[in-house]
Structure formats: structure tokens, C-alpha cells
Design the sequence.
């Protein structure tokens, strides 16, 4: 068996980021400053690092940021207030709330507090509804990353069976809506699996394309895959490495060593979906900023 194709996200992410950098400069020439407001409510260092990366990337591209971090044990009102203050701030052109939020915070309420026009992650009920209805205002960064990666490597979706491990509203459901939509990059038959799925292996084995977003390292190994499957591992879980001084390794859900035999293509973790998610997010920041300023027409096409 030949080695699987590595579905690296970096090169495409770099190209996408270059378009963002040009568009930031163009917007600034029109006196519009793209500004991302973020809300993070967690004590988890891995989640904090994902947020750090977003701010670093924005800074490197000329996107201003306003960061509100709330301790995980603070009253839920602190989270709602943070979203409301960014909502009311006219300098903030884009808004991102990182999930998961603590259990005592009402996520649906937070979703409703984000203004649809500033939403960069398809987080609001209106934007999620528009996506499902086939008229997206904004495509969530991770789902966009998966679709872009499949298109970049000419992985056909039309008529094929895509199995997604996950049923959350941030990754799995929007991705299922996109891949099953009528038209280019869609037309797939999509199955969502979750913890109540009775026989996960029966589903993963018949997938043409398997997308995993469970956040459980080792959940899928080679014995659960069909011959020639394309594996897209969205998960990014930090596990302690042998080197006790390091902050740990980032791993996906799929045991890459045993998946190599059956898979025809597989994403590396890190270096697969992650970099493209970041690039898609900053793309969305520029797009919603340009749209709100009536400057859509000056933004470069991808
Ligand atoms: N690389 C990137 O761009 C991104 C990576 N991530 C990563 O993706 C991972 C998932 O994140 P997130 O969506 O927040 O996680 P959630 O916990 O919200 O969702 C996980 C989903 O996987 C399902 N699941 C979990 N365990 C199993 C199992 N044993 N069998 C079948 N289904 C299972 C859950 O089912 P149920 O609903 O029944 O609980 C749930 O639907 C994390 O590692 C996160 O860091 C997230 C966003 C972007
Ligand atoms: N509303 C919401 N939307 C999200 O999209 C969202 C979220 N909440 N909560 C947290 C997860 C996680 N996430 C990642 C983004 C980029 C990398 C990424 O850049 N990964 C790099 C390396 C990262 C590193 O070095 O630590 C890679 O895989 O190569 C990873 C994970 C988005 N998430």
C-alpha cells in the first residue's frame, strides 16, 4: 500500500492569509480599521493558547483586537456583559466567542447577544439558519477550513458518503449543512455520529470521507477505516508528552500510525485543519468588516 497523501493546510492557509493582508490594507486606506472583539471564559490553558494564537495572527495582519477574558467561575452575567459591551462598541467590527463556555452560562443566550453583522463564526441563530437555508452570511471558520481543504486536494464530495464524528453546532452541524448542500463542494450524503451512536465502527468503515471532531485522542484507529478513505481530523487535544518540560503535544482523534494503511489521504495534526481555521477566521473578520462599511466591492476575490 502506498503512503497516504498528507492533506497539509499550511500552504493554502498562507495563500488565504495573503489575501486577508491585502484587504486589511485596502480597508485601512478607506479609514476602516478591522477590529476583532473576543470573549473567552475558561481556565483551560489549551483554550487560552488557541485564543492567544488568534490575537497574534490578527496583530501580524494589521487587525486590531479587543480581548475580554472572564474567569471560568465568574457569574454568567460577566460573560453576557462582555458580549454586550463588544456589541455596543462601534470600533469593534467583528465578534468571536470561544466555546466551550462553562455549564452555568446559557450558550443560547450568548448566541442571541452576538449581532449577526459582527458574527465571524456563524454563531448567531440568524446566521446558522441562513447557512442551513443555503444562503450563508458567514461560514464558520472550522467548517470553511474543512471544505477548503477538500477542494484544494480535489477530494470529490458529490455522491459520496461523508461520516462526521460529532454533532455540535460549531463544527459538525454547519459542516453537514455545507457538504450536503446542493452544488459545488456539496452533494454528499452526510451522517453525523455521536455518543448515542450504537455502532460507530459500522459508520466509519463505510465512509468515503471521515471527519472527526470528538476531542478524544485514539477514538478512531485503522481497524475502523475502509480502504481508500480520506480522513480529516479536526480535533486538537493537548496531551502530555514524554518531555515533562514541554506543554504537551497536539493530537487529533485518529491514531495516525494505524490509519496510514487503509487511508488514501489524511490530515496531519498539527498542520492540517488548524492553520486553515485560523486563516478562515481572519478572512471572515475582513469580510464582515468590509460588508458593514459598504466596501465589499473593494475586497479582493480569493
Ligand atoms: N482544528 C480546528 O480548527 C478546531 C479544532 N477543534 C477541536 O475539535 C475537538 C472537538 O471540539 P468541540 O466541537 O468543541 O467538542 P464537543 O465536545 O463540543 O463535541 C464533540 C462531539 O463529538 C462527539 N463525541 C465525543 N466522544 C465521542 C465518542 N466516543 N463517540 C462518538 N461521538 C463522540 C460528541 O457527542 P455528544 O454530542 O453525544 O456528546 C460531540 O457531538 C477539540 O479537540 C477541539 O479542540 C475545535 C474547533 C476548531
Ligand atoms: N466558537 C469557536 N470557534 C472555533 O473555531 C473554536 C472555538 N470556538 N473553540 C476552540 C476551538 C479550537 N480552534 C482551533 C483553531 C486553530 C487551531 C490551530 O491553529 N492549530 C494549529 C496549531 C496550534 C498550536 O500550535 O497550538 C495546527 O493544528 O496546526 C487549533 C484549534 C478553534 N476553535
Sequence:
Amino acid at each position: 500500500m502506498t503512503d497516504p497523501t498528507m492533506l497539509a493546510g499550511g500552504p493554502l492557509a498562507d495563500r488565504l492569509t495573503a489575501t486577508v493582508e491585502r484587504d486589511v490594507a485596502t480597508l485601512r486606506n478607506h479609514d476602516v480599521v478591522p477590529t476583532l472583539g473576543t470573549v473567552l471564559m475558561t481556565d483551560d490553558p489549551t483554550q487560552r493558547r488557541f485564543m492567544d494564537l488568534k490575537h497574534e495572527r490578527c496583530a501580524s495582519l494589521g487587525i486590531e483586537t479587543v480581548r475580554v477574558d472572564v474567569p471560568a467561575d465568574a457569574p454568567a452575567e460577566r460573560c453576557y456583559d462582555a458580549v454586550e459591551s463588544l456589541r455596543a462598541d462601534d470600533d469593534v467590527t467583528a465578534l468571536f466567542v470561544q466555546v466551550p463556555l462553562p455549564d452555568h452560562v446559557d450558550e443560547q443566550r450568548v448566541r442571541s447577544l452576538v449581532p449577526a453583522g459582527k458574527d465571524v463564526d456563524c454563531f448567531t441563530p440568524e446566521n446558522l439558519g441562513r447557512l442551513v437555508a443555503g444562503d450563508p452570511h458567514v461560514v464558520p471558520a472550522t467548517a470553511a477550513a474543512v471544505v477548503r481543504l477538500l477542494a484544494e486536494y480535489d477530494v470529490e464530495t458529490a455522491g459520496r458518503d461523508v461520516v462526521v464524528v460529532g454533532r455540535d453546532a460549531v463544527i459538525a452541524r454547519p459542516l453537514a449543512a455545507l457538504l450536503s448542500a446542493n452544488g459545488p463542494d456539496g452533494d454528499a450524503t452526510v451522517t453525523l455520529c455521536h455518543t448515542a451512536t450504537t455502532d460507530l465502527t459500522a459508520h466509519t468503515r463505510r465512509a468515503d470521507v471521515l471527519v472527526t471532531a470528538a476531542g478524544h485522542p485514539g477514538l478512531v484507529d485503522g481497524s475502523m477505516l475502509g480502504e481508500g478513505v480520506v480522513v480529516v481530523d479536526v480535533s486538537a487535544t493537548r496531551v502530555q508528552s514524554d518531555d515533562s518540560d514541554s506543554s504537551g503535544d497536539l493530537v487529533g482523534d485518529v491514531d495516525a500510525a494505524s490509519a496510514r494503511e487503509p487511508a488514501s489521504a489524511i490530515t496531519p495534526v498539527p498542520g492540517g485543519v488548524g492553520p486553515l481555521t485560523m486563516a478562515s477566521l481572519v478572512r471572515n473578520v475582513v469580510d464582515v468588516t468590509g460588508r458593514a462599511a459598504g466596501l465589499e466591492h473593494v475586497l479582493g476575490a480569493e
Remarks:
- The domain at 23-130 is CATH 3.40.50.10860 (Rossmann fold).
- The two ends are 36 Å apart (CA to CA).
